[in-house]
Amino acid sequence: MSRQNFRLSDGRNLEYLSNFQSSTSLGSNSPNLSSAVILHAGTTQDITGWQTWLDYFSSRNVFALAIGRSGYVSSTKKPGRITLDIANDVAELATELGIKTFVNVGLSGGGQHAIATGLDPRSAGVVTIGSLAPFEEMGEDFYTGMQQVDIDEYADALKDINLLIQRFQRSYNNTGSVSGAAHDVSDNDRRAMSKPTWKCVIDSCNFTMSQGWDWVADDYSSYLNPWGFDPRSINVPAVIWQGGVDKNVPVQHGQWLSRNMPNARLELRTDESHLGIFVNYEIEIMESAIALFN
User: Fold this and answer.
1) Could you count the other beta carbons within 10 Å of the beta carbon of residue 240?
2) Does domain 4-291 have CATH number 3.40.50.1820?
3) Which of 198, 214, 229, 10 minimizes the C-alpha distance to 113?
4) How far is Cα of residue 20 from the mean position of the Cα atoms in its chain?
5) Shortest CA distance to 32 belongs to which of 120, 124, 123, 101?
6) Where are the domains of the chain?
7) I need a labelling partner for 109 at 20 to 30 A (CA). Which of 26, 137, 243, 263 fits?
8) Mean pLDDT of 50-75
């Protein structure tokens, strides 16, 4: 699968990766390319971090694509980006590709961007995994149960985004990689770390950080500023996957989303962490997205 590029109406580039480019050589078993699952990565995750998921969707004959948000690798930065901006980018790409129905799936920092696409009349539903709730509405509860390193990152972003960029640069330059593992690794985390998807995600995060830092300002602008829409206005079905021991995006975020989005269903796994639930329940999560087309 090769990286692809789309020129947005404002001249920016949007990079994406898809599991089917055309139906011309696929024969009678070709997927319906007018329907698609669209994948929104977590913070630092490159589009290649979805490779195992794209492969699974291929095995189910489902058209899927992963988009690179503004500032990531070859996707042009958009200063002052808010959450709704990504939904607008997705809308343009869907129109270009002839997609008439879609389900958007967002991991972590990609969750709120997937939620925003629920405003589009072509949306059949939304799936999130460890998604943030709106910063402005959560107040101090935004941080409750969050690990200190993440609290420090948000503090830097609120003070001066260059401090946060420098923090990421120091971390990457000191180690040359990220592990994705918490200090207190559970048995469930160990099980997740042994699976291909875990390595795929971590390798993709390392790739992102080797390519530049525009994503930092763009992502944290969207996390800490108003989203540009009210999540309560998202009426399509939404499946909110949340780990009960998530220290990156604590449980109250998923609970808030499930309470405030009219047709949301909370899928809480009390003994799973942030990345643990994504890997250990990946089949169930993907199938929950496919089910929204029915």
Assistant:
1) 26
2) yes
3) 229
4) 20
5) 101
6) 4-291
7) 263
8) 98
